[in-house]
């Protein structure tokens, strides 16, 4: 299923009104303090980036920047946590192997992780009267549906996509299910969050109801926010590059010709793609950045080098095999369509 949207590479060429920065991998663990807080282990495996205060509970009343001693993100005032599910390859013999991640275009040397964007451009209303607002301390949100298995179920989330990379700079076409052919340079997932906030709640029972999409247009246009969610936020989205190149031999793919990749929660369609976010920027750093024409080099923010990003890490909480050839996915899950 193709998804029409303005590609990221076009955005690079037309505007500097966005933050784009890498975050190295903090840990790969079966924890989810947003959806299953306090549960050890959580139902499925995640890959996490950001501040090293990440844990199973993460009380929203705590000061995340104060709790963390380092961050895996390039902007060293960002102690937020960003996480997604983990991609596995299912071989023809039924065993699973974790797909490694590689740095995005322009970020050589960064240890796996993901690329984070906060977009300002195109996020003002038609009258140009409301500026883009930063998220507040304690804010958190979720995008996607772990149980989605059809195009119709994922369509309500507008822009959760996959790109079959011909090179590391490929950005189109973008589709909403797993590519069905080998991808020469890997598979990139992109996860874009809604941009309109109700102005009151830092979270909601499903971690989504306090946010909404613009009433019209896509994220890259100036569609107004609905009256129920009047506060315009910067658009947050993630890109993750999965290095599927070692799995491109179709002789190893399922005998029926179906695609071989599966999310760590068992989804083989790709429609269950989802992401979590817990805000943790220090003081007013994010608002300063959103008020400025920033891009990779943002004079209003403190930065750290790749070595410092890669050095920040934490040990796994859940002791279980996640690498090598496995007979089941972590947590005992198996592939299902």
UniProtKB/TrEMBL annotation:
Signal peptide: 1-19
Keywords: Signal
Coiled-coil parts of chain: none
Keyword NAD appears in the UniProt entry: no
Domain DUF1996 intervals: 32-281
Protein name, as recorded: DUF1996 domain-containing protein
Pfam families named among the record's database cross-references: DUF1996 (PF09362)
Family matches, as InterPro entries: DUF1996
Biological classification of the source: Eukaryota, Fungi, Dikarya, Ascomycota, Pezizomycotina
């Amino acid at each position: 299923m193709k998804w029409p949207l303005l590609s990221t590479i076009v955005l690079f060429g037309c505007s500097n009104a966005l933050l784009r920065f890498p975050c190295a991998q903090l840990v790969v663990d079966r924890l989810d303090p947003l959806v299953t807080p306090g549960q050890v282990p959580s139902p499925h495996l995640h890959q996490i980036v950001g501040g090293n205060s990440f844990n199973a509970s993460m009380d929203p009343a705590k000061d995340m920047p104060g709790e963390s001693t380092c961050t895996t993100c390039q902007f060293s005032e960002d102690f937020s946590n960003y996480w997604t599910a983990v991609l596995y390859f299912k071989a023809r013999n039924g065993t699973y192997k974790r797909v490694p991640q590689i740095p995005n275009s322009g970020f050589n040397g960064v240890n796996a992780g993901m690329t984070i964007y906060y977009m300002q451009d195109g996020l003002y209303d038609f009258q140009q009267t409301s500026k883009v607002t930063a998220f507040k301390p304690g804010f958190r949100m979720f995008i996607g549906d772990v149980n989605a298995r059809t195009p119709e179920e994922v369509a309500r989330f507008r822009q959760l996509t996959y790109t079959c990379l011909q090179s590391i700079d490929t950005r189109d076409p973008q589709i909403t299910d797993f590519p069905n052919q080998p991808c020469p340079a890997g598979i990139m997932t992109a996860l874009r969050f809604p941009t309109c906030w109700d102005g009151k709640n830092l979270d909601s029972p499903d971690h989504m109801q306090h946010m909404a999409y613009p009433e019209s247009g896509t994220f890259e246009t100036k569609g107004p926010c609905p009256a129920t969610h009047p506060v315009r936020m910067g658009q947050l989205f993630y890109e993750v590059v999965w290095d599927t190149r070692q799995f491109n031999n179709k002789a190893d793919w399922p005998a029926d010709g179906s695609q071989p990749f599966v999310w760590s929660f068992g989804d083989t369609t790709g429609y269950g793609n989802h992401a979590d976010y817990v805000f943790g920027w220090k003081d007013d750093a994010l608002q300063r950045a959103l008020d400025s024409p920033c891009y990779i080099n943002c004079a209003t923010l403190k930065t750290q080098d790749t070595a410092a990003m890669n050095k920040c890490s934490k040990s796994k909480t859940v002791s279980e095999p996640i690498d090598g050839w496995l007979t089941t996915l972590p947590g005992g899950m198996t592939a299902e369509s």
